[in-house]
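Observation: inputs received (chain + adenosine-5'-triphosphate).
Thought: call the complex predictor directly.
Action: predict_structure
Action Input:
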Amino acid sequence: LLQLYGPLNFLGSVYSGIRTALVDLEHMMGLVDESIEVADPAHPLPIATRLADAGPAEVEFRNVHFSYRPEREILHGVSFVAAPGSKVAIVGTTGAGKSTISRLLFRFYDVSSGSVRLDGHDVRDYRQADLRAAIGVVPQDTVLFNDTIGYNIAYGRLGATQEEVEQAARLAQIHDFILSLPEGYATQVGERGLKLSGGEKQRVAIARTILKDPRVLVLDEATSALDTHTEQEIQAALKTVSARRTTLVIAHRLSTIVDADEILVMEHGQVVERGTHEALLAAQGRYAGMWAAQGGEAATEG
Ligand code: ATP
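Observation:
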């Protein structure tokens, strides 16, 4: 029995690690208290999850229809392709369906019709755990564990070395801040420890994601504005994490997406305009109106 205890104990901690990961992700995606009803396929396709192993993935939404409740369709035929390594931005009014798109990509729900595809295959063909390992998210508001700041970063890839953790922190521009803390990487953070500012938490999330090294990145931009200096640091860190990675940005400030390969303008569950920043400005439609409303050129300088 004693011989069995070791491995069982190990399995137990792996299991609880997976549960924590799922709970955390659900929390980040605003899905707490939602019942999850998707199932793994009987014969899942293998998929590489890390950028270092397989490069960026292709993401496609193909005529996706979706409803949370049968009586009300939320997405009415959404289609787009994010080529490997490209950046696609989603903008639009509140309730248009932007977050729903990221939830479907993670397969928190299944589509009613059409398909969500990763590397040319329906996400329903993969194991959920693999799918979620292949996609990283930097959420609007990061949940910190009541643990050390080092653990909070290492959580991106449990098993990473201290050196890898510090390298990720450097790239996320939070290493120097961590060194200035009383106990450095061993400083306790979270509700029962040191409280971090919104910008610091976001950089922890970025460091975590750099360490996770996913092939696809979802950035859920914060609605609340940070001060200009913090904002610039965050933007620089985000550039690092999204470089070479297929990136989906749910954007609120248009100044952060002028360089996107494609911008999708959503309204009431449909893509009503699409194109690059320049093309959309020239079209003088809804996007151009939003741009003017946000202060036009001035927005890029703020
Ligand atoms: P915002 O910019 O305000 O975050 P959004 O474009 O991300 O909005 P979604 O969160 O995708 O919008 O929501 C799209 C629609 O789906 C909204 O009308 C919303 O009320 C509805 N909705 C979202 N989550 C659920 C849910 N769990 N059950 C039922 N309806 C939902």
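Thought: report the result.
Final Answer: The two ends are 65 Å apart (CA to CA). The beta strands are 59-69, 72-82, 87-92, 113-118, 121-122, 135-138, 216-220, 246-250, 262-267, 270-275.
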